[in-house]
Q: What sequence folds into this?
């Protein structure tokens, strides 16, 4: 007689579960300006929600392998950086196979891969400590990484002199630690409701990120419109308020008119949700709102 044995997920499997869930939660969150969500494809002709879900699921083995590699190595090291680079590239190849060549989650593999590895090295650590360990990994050079001077990110960083996905990680994910997570928790405390709090976290990230996806499609005008528009929604009361919702609709229309989509901010929202689940903030003291 064969017995069904329920096995507990390993720590690496649990991290991969959290990373994939963060990507699915980001994709499902609606209404996001210019991005794929439950309403439709936003400013994209080659993406849809089902593809974002399939892409997220395809990355589970890569995230689990990156966490496992970190467990085996046990510390930040050149060898671990090189292994993560190889696993990240394998993950990208699998994503492109599943999406028939569409880049759905390149930036997310980079951010969540580094964070999955660093969360393994720092079990039980706070979000900012996990981000700083990820930064130490990102600052190590990977000699095997093919430099692509023609990637959208590389092109606009050169053209406009801005920092992109690489530097965001090397600096310890300031968009997540200083903007996404604090806004998520502040909106929750203000009673915004979970979906509105997540939208506010995305807007906080958009309000200051040099998102190379937006720069690539819509130049500095698009970037300025995104950052200013996101600030306006938050200043009007955020996604939970009527005035904020009106501004959010206006921002969505503006992003669609510019054919712009903040894919980098979306990836960093997923990183925010991942760290939030892993290292939840302590409840604020009574009377601190
Ligand atoms: C270091 C890498 C991240 C490579 O970076 P690079 O800047 O050279 O490359 P890009 O190919 O442009 O990818 C960067 C992606 O990062 C996201 N992003 C953008 N701005 C930021 C930012 N300021 N901070 C953080 N993250 C940011 C963004 O990803 C999302 O957008 C993707 C869609 O982009 P794109 O293809 O441009 O899309 P479209 O506009 O739709 O194209 P068209 O229709 O116009 O043709 C989507 O995938 C989102 O994820 C950027 O795309 C890193 O990837 C790397 O070196 N990898 C090697 C493996 C490795 O070492 N891994 C380490 C362990 S994980
Ligand atoms: N929801 C989304 N729409 C478009 N591009 C994305 N990249 C990551 N998440 C995305």
A:
């Amino acid at each position: 007689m064969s017995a069904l044995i329920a096995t507990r997920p390993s720590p690496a499997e649990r991290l991969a579960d959290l990373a994939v869930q963060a990507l699915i939660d980001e994709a499902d969150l609606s209404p996001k300006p210019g991005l794929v969500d439950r309403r439709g494809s936003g400013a994209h002709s080659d993406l849809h929600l089902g593809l974002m879900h399939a892409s997220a699921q395809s990355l589970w083995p890569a995230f689990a392998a990156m966490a496992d590699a970190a467990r085996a190595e046990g510390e930040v090291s050149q060898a671990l950086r090189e292994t993560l680079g190889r696993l990240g590239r394998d993950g990208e190849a699998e994503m492109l196979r599943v999406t028939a060549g569409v880049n759905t989650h390149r930036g997310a593999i980079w951010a969540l891969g580094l964070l999955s590895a660093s969360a393994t090295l720092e079990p039980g650590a706070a979000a900012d400590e996990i981000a700083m360990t990820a930064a130490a990994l990102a600052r190590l050079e990977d000699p095997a990484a093919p430099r692509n001077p023609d990637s959208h990110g590389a092109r606009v960083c050169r053209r406009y002199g801005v920092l992109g996905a690489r530097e965001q990680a090397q600096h310890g994910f300031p968009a997540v630690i200083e903007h996404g997570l604090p806004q998520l928790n502040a909106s929750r405390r203000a009673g915004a409701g979970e979906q509105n709090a997540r939208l506010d976290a995305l807007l906080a990230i958009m309000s200051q990120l040099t998102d190379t996806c937006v720069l690539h499609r819509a130049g500095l005008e698009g970037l300025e419109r995104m950052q200013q528009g996101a600030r306006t929604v938050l200043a009007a009361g955020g996604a939970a308020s009527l005035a904020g919702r009106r501004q959010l609709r206006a921002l969505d229309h503006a992003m669609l008119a510019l054919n712009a989509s903040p894919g980098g901010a979306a990836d960093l929202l997923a990183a925010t949700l991942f760290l939030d689940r892993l290292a939840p903030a302590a409840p604020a003291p009574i009377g601190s709102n």
Summary: The radius of gyration is 19 Å.
